[in-house]
Amino acid sequence: MRTTSPNGLSFAGEIDASNSHAVGEAITSAQVPDRDIHVEVGGLVFCDISGIRAFVTVAESLPKGRRMLLHGMPAQLETVIKAVGWNRMPALVVCKCESE
Question: β-strands 92-95, 37-47: how paired?
């Protein structure tokens, strides 16, 4: 679902190998030039590594200086992102702030 404040997307339910490609495509198509993209993930009840990898792949493809901010990250997903080291990517931010 698209969001307007902040401009971005919101995902709920499950992300796995059956739909992770569509998740990546949705995020890519929702990008606004010269702006960070905000993705609300607090409604996810399950996300396997292919889903997390979809977020990482989009973040890696962003133009220099742009970021994907993940809001509402479930603790289990944040643990995986930290264990793999993806939390150190400048373009992928697990946001602890209120949506801007």
Answer: unpaired
Q: Is residue 48 part of a domain?
A: yes
Contacts (Cβ under 8 Å, ≥6 apart) of 49: 80
- 50 by DSSP, 3-state: which? helix
Residue with tokens 């993209």: 37
Q: Which residues contact residue 100 at a Cβ distance below 8 angstroms, ignoring those fewer than 6 apart?
A: 6, 38
- List the domain range (segments joined by +) for residue 44: 2-95
Confidence class for position 98, pLDDT limits 50, 70, 90: low
Task: Indicate the number of domains in the chain.
Answer: 1
Is 66 inside any structural domain?
yes
Helices and strands of the chain, counted as H and E runs:
3, 5
User: Model-level pTM greater than 0.90?
Assistant: no
- The answer to whether residue 100 sits within a structural domain is no
